[in-house]
Amino acid sequence: MSLFSLLSVSASGMAVQRKRAELLVENMANAETTRTPEGGPYKRKDAVFQSDRQTSPFSSVFQTELNGGGMTGVKVSEVVVDQSEPDKRYMPGHPDADPQGYVAFPKMNPAEDMVDLVSTTRSYQGNVAAMTAIKDMIHRSLDIMR
Predict the structure, then answer these.
(1) Residue 114 phi, psi dihedral angles, 5° rounding
(2) Where are the alpha helices (DSSP H) in the chain?
(3) Which of 47, 100, 139, 145 is most buried per CB count within 10 Å?
């Protein structure tokens, strides 16, 4: 196991958490969007994670294979769009109201999205802390070899 491959694992974790945060912020920004270019209200999006083999760009392919084939990181396998029915609110004067006076709004829970965003931030910070610890180990190893 190489310290450099561990950096790749943490980097993959940071990348997926950044993508998740982008989707959560997009969801919150569009919580009141009743009309999209596709038609209808905005639909909530969420990232699906999948484990992914990580290889270090600093080690040779032979060494990676010799040490067990690399580390397991994570990647975004797909972005899922919520297909549930939108929330209907009675607003007869709204330009997007149907003939009965109801407007379709995205089905979202702002409190849930905020909790998810805090969790995503904490996960990102955890990966940053892991990368910092690995960097410190590499630095100390170099100091010992002097």
Answers:
(1) -65, -40
(2) 3-29, 61-66, 110-145
(3) 47
